[in-house]
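Record type: monomer structure entry
Structure origin: computed from sequence
Chain ID: A
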Amino acid sequence: MKCLENYFAVPEAKQQHFIPDSILKNFCLNNNGRIYTYSKNLKKTWDSQTKNTAKMNCFYNFKTKDLSIELALGEIESMIASTFQKILNNQERLILTNDDIGSLINYYYIQMHRTPSSKALFSQYLKQDAKQSIQIIPEFCKLQNEHNNSIEIKFNESVIYDIWLTNIFQISDIRIKSFLNDFIITIMVNNENKLIINDKGYASYHAFQFFPISNNIILIFQNNKLLSNYVTDINSHDLTHLYRFGKASTYQVDWYNSLQVQQASQYIFAPSKELLEFYTNPLNSQDVFKDNYKQSAKNKV
C-alpha cells in the first residue's frame, strides 16, 4: 500500500469530480470548455463549464476521519489523461505501450467504482452481505489505525462510506498487470462528434463495457472471462494484442448513445443541446435501440 500521509491528505478544493474534468473537456465543441447536461429526474437541460459539472461536495473525503482519496485519484487521472491524449492525437498511427494499456485498465476499474451510483450499490451490498462486510472492515480498520491508533468501528452510514473510499483506494493500488489478459480493448472512432456520456462514465452490454472518452472516441472493453473462448496462455510480456482500432458507424454511435441514456443514474452529458434532446426523447431512444439491436449484437461492438 502507498503511504497514507502522501495519498490521504485532505485537499483544499471541496468540489470533487466523479467523472474526471479531463474527460468532460473532450466532449466540448471547439474546446470552449462548456458541456450540456440533462437530468432524468428534472427532465431539464442546461449548459455549464466542465469544471462545474459531474461533481459533488467533499465526495472523496472520509466521514469519520480527516482523510481523503481525492489527491490519489488526481495523480492517477493525470497518468490516464496522458494516455487518452495520445489516443486523441494519434488516431491514425496509434501505438500504445504496456504502461498505456495499464492506464486504460486502471481507468476501467476505478471509474466503475467511484461514482454516486456505485457508492449506493456498494452500500447496499455491504448491508446485505454480512460476510463480505466482515472481510472488508479489517482492511478499513488497518488503514484507520495506521493514521490514528485504535478506534472502535460502529457499522453505520459514515463507516460504510469510508469503507467504500478505502475500497477505491485499494483498487487504484492493485497490480494492474495481473488483469491485463482479462480484456481486449477496442478503440472506436467516429468523426461526427456525436458521442455522449452518462454519470457513471460507461454503459454495459453482456461481456462489453463502453467508455466514451471524447465526443468521437469510445473505448470498448471486452471482458474475456465472460466469454466461452477465454484464452489464458497469452504472453504477458507482449501486450500489443490487447488493443485494436475500429471505425464506428452512425448506427453504432446511435446504439452506444442509447445505452448511455438507458443506464444513466440521473445525468447525461453531451456536446450539444440538440443531441440530448434527441437521445433523451423516449421515442427516439427506443426506436434507435430497436433498429440497431440485432446488428449491434451481431457485430458485438
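Annotation 1: DSSP finds ten helices and eleven strands in the chain.
Annotation 2: Residues 145 and 151 are 7 Å apart (CA to CA).
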